[in-house]
């Protein structure tokens, strides 16, 4: 069972600093759960990993394409979460031409673990990863959760059937 409220976690992110010169004008910035979710309506979708097939071919691009529709429905931000580090999430966003979605690294898997969504994917050489899901968070409260069926360690794959942008849009439109 998922928590009624998002877990309290600190995410270790990298943000651009215009005062820094050179090829890597980024600095570390810790972001808390409160900063992301308190007093806001947020769609967060989580996926197994950057640069993986279903995540790159449909899951992430689907939310990027639907971003304006989410905003039109009163969503403050759309966040992509993965158990990857900030550097990998940044490069994946660049490679996928992602400009609207916030890429949120859950590098240590803390958020995924506290959500009950951290799974072992070591059979595929991926280590610990997030299960694939999408949720609507309103002022830290999880008001809708669409997780892919069969939550378990080492599945052969995790399709995008329930956690896609279209499912979340339909939910928001029918409220």
Structural class: alpha/beta
Any low-confidence stretches, pLDDT <50, length ≥5? none
Euclidean distance between termini CA atoms: 23 Å
Taken as a percent bin, the fraction of beta residues is 25-35%
Query: How many helix segments?
Result: 5
Describe this protein's structure.
Helix 2 packs parallel to helix 5. It contains five helices and nine strands; from the N terminus they run ββαβαβαβαββββα. With 175 residues, it is α/β, with parallel strands linked by helices. The model has no long low-confidence stretch (mean pLDDT 94). It is 29% helix and 29% strand. The strands form three sheets. It has a five-stranded mixed beta sheet with strand order 5-4-3-8-9. The chain has a two-stranded antiparallel sheet with strand order 1-2.
Write the layout of secondary structure elements.
Blueprint: E1 10-16, E2 26-32, H1 33-37, E3 41-47, H2 53-72, E4 77-82, H3 86-96, E5 102-105, H4 110-114, E6 118-120, E7 128-130, E8 133-138, E9 141-147, H5 165-173
Parallel strand pairs: 3-4, 4-5
Antiparallel strand pairs: 1-2, 3-8, 6-7, 8-9
Helix pairs in contact: 2-5
